[in-house]
User: What shape does this take?
Amino acid sequence: MREPSDRPLIAVAQYAPVKGSVEANRLRSVEWIAKAARQGAGLVVLPECCITGLVFESRAELMAIAESIEGPTVEAWTKAAAENDIIVIGGMAERDGAELYNAAVFVKPDGSVHRYRKTHVFGAERSLFDLGDRLVCVDTAWGRVGLAICYDLWFPEIARELALADAGLIAVPANWFVPPRQKDETGGQLPMGFHHAVSAACANEIAIACADRTGVENELPFLGQSFILGPTGRPLAGPASAGDDALLLARWEEPGVGRRQVQSHLQTRRGDLYARPVDILGR
Assistant: This one.
């Protein structure tokens, strides 16, 4: 049993869920949870929408296989979290009555369940999902964990608000791909999400763990290259390869690692200045 004061190992699981294969994807996610625990992890992050897949022709098609927060996937994750003494953070399509959300579910070994609903959706996702309207942090024995999903990282306000709420880690389930207008940028380069995450980690002195997926859905290839960043923005694990399964592990680094530097970015920020209107000169 880990002592609460110990800094846990963080794990991110990178693999390729199969679109529409809900039961098989659920079983596979539980296998990754157990694998992370066997490696000594205290927290594991799974990819975005890892039970259903993401690329659907219509909202109705996805709604037909989406689950509620009380459904079999969260039940399976709750059981796996308890049996393996590990925190599970996984992405799923969450059905709530007539509403459909791209959610990150946070399950503790004690059976408590929390969720974050993606607040910024990209491209065709806008026809599938309703938008979340709250930012979320969850307290653990080791520190506070903020939640974000994939495209949320393109908005620096997300990481800043989570850091100001005293999060020490942001967990990010992701499904990164190259948009059609950027197809000429695929040449082995890191996902743009990696660069956004590095900037967010450094500017906010916070660790970030991103679990991306691999594989192809409806001819759309995903980029893999999952990673864990420390609070200085430097990689602690990864990036993983673009196409292979991977389990990355790194020790949770407290935000104080960055904030004890000669100059802390968060402590230097000027909230009073940012609240003022911008002066428009030269008219």
